[in-house]
Amino acid sequence: MIVHQAYRFALDPTPAQARALSTHCGAARFAFNWGLALVKAVMDQREAEKSYGIAPADLTPPLRWSLPALRKVWNQVKDDVAPWWAECSKESYSSGLDSLARALNNWTTSRDGKRKGRAVRFPRFRSKRRARRSCRFTTGGVRVEADRRHINLPKLGRIRTHESTRKLARRLEAGTARVLSATVRLEGGRWHCSFTCEVQRADPPPAQPDVVIGVDLGITHLAVLSRPLSGVTNAVGAVPNPKHFARASAALRRKSRAVSRKHGPDSRTGARPSKRWERADQRRNRIHHRVANLRRDGLHKLTTALAAGFGTIVIENLNVAGMLSNRRLARSIADAGFAEIRRQLAYKTRWRGSRLVVADRWFPSSRTCSDCGAAKAKLPLHIRVFRCDSCGLEIDRDLNAARNLAALAVSSTTGTGGTGDLEPPCSNGRGADRKTRALCGQAAVKRPDRSADLPVGCPAGASRIRSCR
Ligand SMILES: [Zn+2]
């Protein structure tokens, strides 16, 4: 299977190389801002001319926004606007103009309703001090050196890597990967280079191709699997939640206090931060990056173990964006990284030819008995143990949900969605076009008998009936 995959390596550039990397990213930013100013000027000019009543044929011709068109104009004027252009690789200017072309394209397609997701605004100028330092090389001497400790970039030359490049180098030597582009980026005070590659993957099929596993994501436990997996879960199938951010929060508070005591930037007065503030800020950011690295590592290990182990994986379609609007839970949910788990499972199951089933958002996985199938009307979040009213089953709430999810894929061979096949489109962007169902299955059948025992106008009976609408 041919996939696009990135290999990212931390770099150890010499001080001169680090300056050159910074210069290249600055050049990309310069080209972006130059192009944006040009686009704005032409748009404003045409607006003004229209307001004078000039005929459409006589207006200033519109500027084309594609990368080749922008690059053509840039090459015509670069001697005037950037006489120093030869200091950097031409790829850096191309990189800036490419991101401008993409930004403008995103804006127009979003405005015309052709782009999913939240509305994209018109691009803004990139600040010298705040913009992310990043630059992409697509042609020229982009290489991973054979010694597995160096990479080569146009104009920048050989740069030592902080870690071995063997994972990618082996593939390049075997001819199972081809480098498409290299992106350098300053992140967490360190330069990284990410190679986008076309990779010929031959992953072994899952160890248990006929086994279905249900995965219930949560906060008490990061995930509860419908059956234990040695090395990943405990005896009952729970994956502990490492809570990296919560564990780092004390250190983060301490470093943040140190930042607050120093002379920081002020957007009102335009005051620049002191050197000490910048150093303290870097020390704080290092913790943030460490948390992100720990989380990424843990999630990759979990999703790889799942994709390598089971033929079918069933997860819930969680409304993560909606859950993040709960201010009591948002931090814990963001710390767990639910959406990232689903994203990783989607492509890792594809690589191994296994199946990812995403349960309908309204599937009552927590409220249904995994033994007899009776559903409860409500199960508040604080009740951690599921007790079935019909068969008397007592089981951990999350394990019950995981087993229900697994049973979902077993009962319907097609599932609610195959690999990558998600919920049907609906009017609302986040799929929130329904209310939570109150009753279903056996409990719904029983309701009339129970309410018959209750006196007319009983508030308990009334509320039960209302809740099932
Ligand atoms: Zn039951």
From TrEMBL:
It comes from the Bacteria. Keywords: DNA recombination, DNA-binding, Metal-binding, Transposition, Zinc. Residues 251-283 are annotated as: Disordered. Residues 195-326 form the Probable transposase IS891/IS1136/IS1341 domain. The keyword Zinc applies. Residues 252-262 have a biased composition (Basic residues). Residues 338-405 form the Cas12f1-like TNB domain. InterPro entries: Cas12f1-like_TNB, RNA-guided_DNA_endonuclease, Transposase, Transposase_put_HTH. Residues 1-40 form the Transposase putative helix-turn-helix domain. It holds the Pfam family Cas12f1-like_TNB. In the C-terminal section; belongs to the transposase 35 family. This is Transposase. It comes from Lentzea flava.
